[in-house]
Amino acid sequence: METKKFDCIVIGVGPAGLSCALTLKNAGKNIAVIESAELGGTCLNRGCIPTTLLLNIGEFLKKIKSANTLGIEILDYKINFSKIIEYKNSVINIHRKGIWQTLKNQKISYFSGAASFIDEHTLAVAQSDNSIEYLSADIIIIATGAKPAYPAEFTNARNYFLTSENIMDLTEAPKRLAIIGAGVTGCEFAYFFNEIGTIVYLIDTAETSLPIKIDSEIHQIFIREIKKNKINTINAVSVSSYSIENESVLLNLSNGDSLAVDKVLLAIGRAGSIANLNLEKIGIKYNHKNFIETNEKYQTAQKHIYAIGDVAGKYLYAHTAAAEGKQVAEIIVGIRDNTKFNAVPFTIFTYPELAWCGLTEQEAIDKKINYKKSIYHLRGLGRAHTLGEISGLVKFIVDADTELIIGCHIIGARATELIHTVQLAMNNNLKISALAELIAAHPSMSEALMETARLIED
Fold first, then answer.
1. Total structural domains in the chain?
2. pTM of the entire predicted model
């Protein structure tokens, strides 16, 4: 068989794979990338780009509904769901073409097909025309991403039980939607569908919605806002069984209640995308969720084979995946010795937005850190009032001995943008006084960071 030889091969062209490939190419390596689906990975095609686009539309609708308080009378409007999806697809296509053009401009060899290991250095790429390309490299990087978990008991009703990968391809919005899983994905979709008029039921086995590691004061406001937005939350229950009746789904819950809906969104976690890679043949290990096991340098059991991004199962965020791709590429070419992730920002694009980095207050307590904190409520901020979004707060947690910021938690307007100022300060070991001395434009949401910093007790 004829085999094409490269310095490095990257399997998967999502945020992790693309970042890694471009960094390696800029370092002078001869690179090939392989993608079995669409360029851009989950983030662009079925994840953060389309979901934040839909959430932006939902936010726009929310403003329309409250326009009367601003003196704007909107007598009537109509939601064209199919046109929303059409617009979503057009945005995705623009970015796909951009990635393809980038690969072309950078002279990175692109192979469309499913990759499978033949041996530790060789891959077979099964292409759509049934032909097979054979590629080999000294270094191989697996960046195949992850996919939504899909329990076997729902496979016979796939038209009714959807995931984040196909719910955005519906041509008609469901009148009633049950979301199983009230984590980040479930909550974001709950907010969007609620705004376009769908009756939403947000179901979770946990005692509360958004049962993740976030600061308790931020979480309290989030739960309050869910109630204000009239999203139906059902907690501490599971789905015992279901049936399809009259083109609807009847969900039987563990508390004895039942629920009739048109569609169900499964938002119960993700699993690594490793199908057809043939990892067993080359001794690469993965866990029960199909996330590939790696060391701190993202090396697998085969040290010349790396796993980055979602398939490595560490963060499951597009921005961390891109950072992993860049840092691992720098390890490969000898620019750095190890990966380093300080003050990683986490974001949720609900209404209001949430963002945080560093330690929660409870974690500071558990670590026995001598800390101090400050909280500033956004209702005291002029810009929050001009935006009509006064719910929320900013909270700083500071090491009392060093004056360094060890945690920041924000809920409110523009939270997902504000967090990066704090992240920059934390990554550069700036003391809280640096933000207290910030001259923030007035009126702006950035003033909230300055005001919160100034509240830290002496």
1. 3
2. 0.95
